[in-house]
Amino acid sequence: MTGRFIRLDEHSRPALTLHVDGEPVSALEGDTLMTAMLQAGRALRTSEFDDGSRAGFCLMGACQDCWVWTESGERLRACSTPARAGLRIVTHNPEASWPNLA
Amino acid sequence: MAEPRVIIVGAGPAGTRAAEALVRAGLRPMVIDEGQRSGGQIYRRQPEGFGRSYAKLYGTEAGRARDLHQSFEALLPHIDYRPETLVWNIADQHVWWANAHDQDAAPFDALIVCSGATDRLMPVLGWHHAGCYSLGGAQVALKAQACAIGREIVFMGSGPLLYLVAAQYAAAGAKVAAVLDSAPASARVRAAPDMLALPSVLWNGIGLTLALRKAGVPVLHGVTPVEIRGDADQGVTGLVYRTAGGDTREIACDAVAMGHHLRSETQLADLARCAFGFDPVSRQWLPQCDAEGRSSVPGVYLAGDGCRIRGARAAEAGGQLAALAALADLGLAVDAAERAHLLDAMADYARFARGLMRAFPWPQHQAASLPDAAMVCRCEAVTAGDLRQVVRETGAREANRAKAFSRVGMGRCQGRYCGLAAAEVIAAEARVPVESVGRLRAQAPVKPLSISTGEDAA
Amino acid sequence: MSAPAGHSDVVIVGGGLMGCSAAFFLRQRGLSVTLLETDLVGRQASGTNFGNVRRQGRPIHQLPLANRALASWRNAKALVGSDLEFMPSGHIRVCYRERPELVGAMEDYADKARDEGLSLELLSGNALRDRFPFFGQDVLAGSYSALDGHANPRLAAPAFARAAIALGAVIHENTRIIAAQKSGEDFVVTAGDGRSFRAPILLVTAGAWGNALSSQFGEPVPVTPRGPNMSVTEPVPYAIAPAVGVMTPLEEETVYFRQVARGNIVIGGSTRGPSFPDQYRAYVKPENLLSQLKHIRRLAPELGRLNIIRVWSGIEGYMPDSLPVMGPSGTTPGLFYAFGFSGSGFQIGPGVGETMAELIATGSTDIPIAAYDIRRFAAG
User: Fold this and answer.
1) Helix B13-24, helix B62-75: angle, nearest 10
2) Is there a contact between C46 and C72 (Cβ–Cβ < 8 Å)?
3) Which of B289, B359, B396, C45 could form a disulfide with C316 if both were Cys (CB 3.0 to 4.6 A apart)?
4) CA distance C93 to C355
5) Which of B91, B401, B452 sits opposite C40 (nearest CB)?
6) According to DSSP H, which parts of B196-264 are helical?
């Protein structure tokens, strides 16, 4: 059990599966994407300017700390995005795979 | 005469009561809100399909919460409701909005901004580690997602929210490692006379402290946080703090919930070109408004915590007052007795709010003693030392100037979580009054806006 | 009742990049300098522009000035103590499929520019796409300038100001000059708070406010204040080296972007907004931001995935022929001007300061500036 967030209640909701960094993650209907990711893992994304990671901060769409990416490069703010079956999330910036465009 | 177009931004307590008053007067306001459901923050609704009772979610506020939510539901056929929609700019008597499907500019004759508040944060060395959350964030996790932010949680800072969230967590079965209040115990006693303006709320606060103690949670006063320990893999691993008596102690934890009361979300008022003034009691810059919520810009009204931090009941009254002011200014009839009653109530709320600020003061001195290595701007990873160096080397002593040279406030959150503390750091380093540092000027978009905005419509 | 607050060899009115660099170079030549700035140095056009440090695209007669400036950009760290985040990572301007005639214009320019020491490489088709895969499919061809680049405008004028002060210049910020006149051998400029400053030489580098001063010497000029349309994205991993722009006759299509070392992509252009010189404020109109984003999506579609986190504007001074007012006064000996750079002053800024210092100190300069003579606006 390595998740950061701990479910205290509301356990009997339909399950759904999404993918994070290619791995399946099981979540519940009504979870935000942040909850879905953090009840399974420790962080939402790598940090841009230091070697740590970020797991959100305000949960109310103000701090902008919880932006994650889909495999196709779409940006999602995890605390205000509902978890959906079929989402394919990556925790690092996909532009990192651009060829160097110098 | 064509029906006046009124737009309300925010569907929390202030926005709900404003909409109600306008609908009662026969108008059909547009209500734009970022959330999935109405209710704002303190009365934030759980998602559909969740089963916890109002009593469990809102405790002593259950009745008010239910009333508010039902009021909004009853309004739905009579308003133009735009949920999950961001107002990203205001210009030329138009509100510019965007959501996942569309964007446009909506014209208004009157605009009522009910943008609410966020937590106010004083940085602590190590607060960038994964596992640090605002008190409000910890509360959202519990209230809206039935989750605790961690296995062993330290709650620290000051303000009524500190005790409320910690008590809610304890009651819900989470492990609360400690509640560390930066305010000295004596501050609450001194402020008690003002807080008696709302005796039932004061009683609630005392009850929360007793409940925590009864649950075996250590509650300490006069605490200074020293460092949030953590590492790149685990995130938060512990908290080091200094007691009122001067002892340094460490407590193991995997999550910290922190905050010092609230700060108003004023970006929309700024974009609407409202005049601001410095409030020395709360040490914040706030948009000017009269007793009924008129800003300095004709046709723009402000209500709720987005204008003055006075709590949920004041937000409800303020929303109603602002709507009445808008109606009066539009030449429509207004009930003078209703207005007078609301103004009386606001006076009590204002007094209580002042008491709260005295009981739970913003620990501005912590800014001066922040270690250089402490991050001030989480978004841009700018430390207190970086900021102080900029002040010394460039002479920058004004918020926007210091931002231009240090990058503090240039990140995604646009200074929401660093701006107030950064002003204190600048003021301390430059040895000037914090008022002279000014405030970060709001720029559109109020929150990040996709470069694809407008793509389908174009 | 005002008391003279000092006498120097030169008084400069206007603390943007032109004024601050002129102050620096004048001090290097040993002249005493007092610079007066209404607000804080470098806050308007100098601090809010896009940050292009490009020679490409300038009028051919301006290239010697641009070459002179480039030497300062390259040497900024030694010169003013900061590299100003100058990235000599190239500049490319492209044209779209529907204007193939612009390819000829690019070739024509490249030929002429070569004579002035600016070497440009023309790219199209696969060569363009292999090198710069981010271009949208409507991009036809590009002209690439390897030695151009970009820098951080917010740092430039303040750095020159600090370096000038270190050499002994006196700079008064929060000092708005409301009157200027010649009295005997000296110019006397008076601030709103009553302070006055005297010098035998007056240099007006007051940007969009230049006409307020030139008018007081009988040479009004039609400066139009306009606000640049600027936005910036969240940081993304660094991948785009050159500054990128569009060559087109349409203002709304003229967009550009550059990625800074930290990863944010700065975007500028499309329809410009109004500015309010009296209030020292300019705003980006929301519709102008949306127009900018639409044209950016066409230029580099992958940028469509990114978020804009902030917009800003400032106050730039535009002349009707897009050429600055630069050089000696047509009416008053000892009076000099350098303002109205029409949104193209950033790269040449240090060169302008150096050239004005040379002109003031020696009486002449080899840098061609005749095209910028203020007398071209004289009536009759």
Assistant:
1) 50
2) no
3) C45
4) 28
5) B401
6) 199-214
Q: Which residues of chain A neighbour C305 with C-beta distances below 8 Å?
A: 73-75
CA distance C299 to C252: 13
Q: Is C295 helix (H, G, I), strand (E, B) or coil?
A: helix
Domain ranges of chain C: 4-49+154-222+320-377, 91-146+228-313
Task: State the pLDDT confidence band at C2, using cuts at 50, 70 and 90.
Answer: very low
The CATH classification of domain C4-49+154-222+320-377, taken from the options 3.20.20.70, 3.50.50.60, 1.10.150.130, 3.40.50.12780: 3.50.50.60
Whole-number Å distance between alpha carbons of B251 and B240: 7
Residue A49 lies in a domain: yes
Which two tokens mark B79? 């308003």
Instruction: Say how far apart CA B182 and CA B201 lie, in whole Å.
Output: 21
CA dihedral sign, ordered B107, B110, B116, B117: positive
Partners of residue C240 in chain A, C-beta under 8 Å = 101
pTM (two decimals):
0.96
Q: What pLDDT is stored for residue C85 in this prediction?
A: 97
Number of structural domains found in chain A: 1
- Per-residue model confidence (pLDDT) at position C218: 97
CATH, range C91-146+228-313: 3.30.9.10
- Rounded CA-CA distance B373/B123 in Å is 11
- The pLDDT of B1-29, averaged and rounded, is 96
A67·C307 Cβ contact <8 A = yes
Give percent of chain B above pLDDT 70: 95
CA distance B297 to B295: 5
Q: How far apart are CA B305 and CA C264, in angstroms?
A: 33
C-chain residues near A67 (CB < 8 A): 234, 307
pLDDT at C322 exceeding the cut of 70: yes
| Cα B233 from Cα A41, distance rounded (Å) | 11
Whether C309 and B411 lie within 8 Å, measured CB to CB: yes
**What are the pLDDT digits (tens) for B321-338?**
999 999 999 999 999 999
Question: Rounded mean pLDDT of chain C?
Answer: 96
Helix/strand/coil for B233? coil
* Ranges assigned E (strand) in B83-210: 86-91, 94-98, 103-107, 110-113, 117-119, 132-134, 147-148, 153-158, 176-181
Read off the pLDDT of each residue in C265-281 and give the average, rounded to a whole number.
91
Residue B162's pLDDT is what? 94
Q: Under a CB-based contact definition with an 8 Å cutoff, are residues B8 and B268 in contact?
A: no
Hey, are the CB atoms on C158 and B405 less than 8 Å from each other?
Answer: yes
CA-CA distance, B447 to B86, in Å (whole number)?
8
Give the chain A residue nearest B85 (alpha carbons): A80
Judged against a pLDDT cut of 70, whether residue B446 lies above it is answered with yes
First to last CA, chain A: 44
DSSP string, C79-128: HHS--TT-B---EEEEEETT-THHHHHHHHHHHHHHHTT--EEEEEHHHH
Domains of chain B: residue spans and CATH? 6-118+263-356 (3.50.50.60), 121-260 (3.50.50.60), 365-437 (1.10.10.1100)
What's the gap in Å between the CA of C287 and the closest CA on chain B? 9
CATH number at residue A57: 3.10.20.440
Instruction: Tell me the two tokens of residue B137.
Output: 């964030």
State ipTM.
0.96
B-chain CB neighbours of A13 within 8 Å are: 49-50
Question: Among A74, A93, A100, whose Cβ lies nearest the Cβ of C236?
Answer: A93
Q: Determine whether the interchain pair A101/C239 forms a contact, defined as Cβ–Cβ distance below 8 Å.
A: yes
Q: C233 to chain B: which residues are within 8 Å by CB?
A: 451
**C153-166 and C17-28 helices, crossing angle to 10°:** 30
**If DSSP codes are grouped into helix, strand and coil, which group holds residue A54?**
strand
